[in-house]
Structure formats: C-alpha cells, structure tokens
Write a structure and sequence with these properties.
Layout (H helix, E strand, L loop, with lengths): L9 H10 L7 H11 L1 H22 L4 E8 L2 E4 L4 E4 L2 E12 L3 H67 L5 H36 L20 H11 L1 H23 L3 E12 L9 E11 L7 H67 L5 H34 L4 H6 L4
Antiparallel strand pairs: 1-4, 2-3, 4-5, 5-6
Length: about 425
Amino acid sequence: MLIKPSNKPLSSTIISLMALWVTPLSLPEAVRNALDFDPTISQSQASLAASEAGVNIARAQRGLNIGLQAQIGVSETDFTIGSVSQNPRSVGIQAELPLYQFGALSAGIDAAKSSRQVAKARQQGTREKITLDVVEAFAQTWLAEHTHEVARQQVESFEIKLRETKARFEQGLATRTDVALTEARLASSQAQHAATQAQYISAKQRLARLTGISDPEPANPFAAPLILPDSAEALLALALKRNPDLHAAKAVDRAADYQVKQSVGSFGPKISLKARASSAEESYFFLNEQINDSAAFLTLEMPLFTSGLRGATIDKARANKARTSATTRDAELQLREAVYGIWGNMEAQSLSLEAAKRAEQAAKLGAEGAQKEYQAGVRTLLDALDAENAYRDAQIARFRAEASLYVTKAQLISLTKNLEQSLLSAPQ
C-alpha cells in the first residue's frame, strides 16, 4: 500500500500519540457499565419489589388481624321521671382470623405470585434489551470510527491526486477537465468525510448515554464471540422456554386466571373466627362500676343479593382472562416470526460477509499490484491512488457486513435471554 508522509500539525500528531495510550473499551465492560448505569434497571427493580410486597399483602389477607378499639363520649337520656347523664368509656381488643372464603384467599395469593413472576420476567427482559442496545451502539460506534478514518485517508488520496493532476496539466499530459473532475471528487470526499465525522459523533454520544462513559473508545466488538444453536428450530425451542417477553405474557395470563377464581370466591361463603375483650365504665344505665366483657364467635357470611355487582365483577375478570390469553398467543406467534425472520436475515448477511471478504481481498491484490506497477513505471500515481481507494471502499463494505452480522446474532441470542450471560462470561 502507499505510504505517504504526514502533513498533520505537531499538535495533531501529539494527540494521535496520546490516543495510543488510551485503553479501548471492551464490549463486556460496556455492558456492565450500562447495566449499572441505566435508570430502567432501577425501575424494574422497584417493580419487582412492589410485586414482592403484593405477595406479602395477599398472604396477610388470610392471617390473624388484631386491633385496639377505644371510645369515650357523653350520653344524655330523658325519662318520664327524670334524666340520666353519663360519660361512657370503653377500651377493648378484637381479633379476626379468616378460615374459609370459597378459594378467594388462595387465588389472591396465587395471583400475586404470578404478578411477581411477571415483574421478574420483565426485569430480565429489560436487562436483555439494554444489553442488545449496547451491542448495537458499540458496533455502530466502532464502524463509524473506522469509516471516518477511511474517509480521511480518501481525502488525503484525492489531495495527492489533485496535485498530481495539476502537475500533469502543466506538462500537457492532462486537460483542464481532468483537473476539474479531480477537484470535484476531492470536494465530494471532503463532504463525505464531514458526514462520517457527524455519524461518528452521534454514534459515540449514544454509546456514552447508554454506558455513562463520557468518551468511550470501543475496541473490536468481534473479540466477544457469539455462539448460536445449529438451526433456527433449536433456537426457537430455547426461545419458547426462556424468552422473557413470552414468560411475562404467560405469567399475566396465569394471574388473570387466578383473578377470575378470586372474583368468584369473594362473593361466596366466608367463615371466620372473631374474638373480643373489652372493659367499660358507665356503659349501662344505673351501673356505675367497671364492666369487663369477652366473647368469641365463629361467623358465617354469605352474600345473597348484590345488585348485579357479583355478575359484573366476574364478567370483567373473565373478559380480562380472554384478553391475556389472546395476548399470550400473539406473543408466541411474534416470537416464532422473529426467530425465523432474523435467522433468515443472518444467513443472508453471512453470505454478504463472505462476498465482501472476497471483494476486499481482490481489491487489496489490485491495490498492491497497481502500487508495484507504479513503482515499475507501468502505471501512473493516479492509477495507484484509484486502486487504493477502491480497496478502502471494499474494506468499509466488509466492516459493515461484519457489524451487521454481529448485531443480528446478538438479536437472536437476546430472544433466548442469554445475551447478557454470553457477553459477560466471554473470556477477556
């Protein structure tokens, strides 16, 4: 390849040398930082804590409840022969233990446990989504950096080519049109260089937002290998067992089923044990001494008429169950579609990558041959520069194909809830 002397100012050279000492950010490190930094992780943890509290609330509904009751007041009673003024005072303690409620209590606990499973699945899904976002941002930043560097090299090539074309014009070996065309190509490459710089800055900012690292310098993302099952069918089997979105949908469906049972049970017979103990003064006429009272009851309650509340409540719960069942079915169908669709895309991208590698190798041989022929005087410097730029274009095409294939593999692995584990357990 052509080796050209650097025309950079000393300050740029120093900055470039300092950059050599910067430790590149690895993809697993970026994922760890993102999982610690992203606020949605805290949100999912709060949701999980709330669901844990919901289970405790449901369990407490069937436990013993003890309460304290106190009362003080003024009572004035008129009789035919006179009146009585009293200041009744009482204090007591009461307890209630639910014994049976037509399955409503157990269904409520099971529904709360299913809600907790929903929260866990969604937390896992959140972590997988963040991991996938980091993979995409990391690969795009790495690609944008290399594309920007190649665009800079192409600008330098066209600057040399313009000088060479002008020299040939002065010697009568090129026309003014040749000079104008070269100037246009230089301007186009400079515009492309500016565009790639903007893309690089944008990609870098997204990676910084995800990871919390102010100036990330991504290393080669392909150093963290992604291993897939041998077939789309094998991957689908894993996804059906482990996909967090599908797990969440199934848990929501189970919770809805238990809520139907809870709705039915809440209008059924209720048996509970109640007890109380109290002490009162001036609570009864003509008795000004302290009265102590204690009692225990086995209570049966059974709603007979609710003005349609029972039927409406149960109908609402059953409609919600029908909706969640349809949602679960839809989630499974979407998962199947995603697995086969992304798998087919991956196979096409694998073929594109192989073609890009062959094209790059051919362009590399062409550039090396043009360089040797230029040194031998068979080709001009302009021919060698054109061949070198063609090689750079092929190199960028291969980079793009590699990045696209890597992200697609990450998408497939994330469907099985295994992307985070695959990256963080990869050897550094």
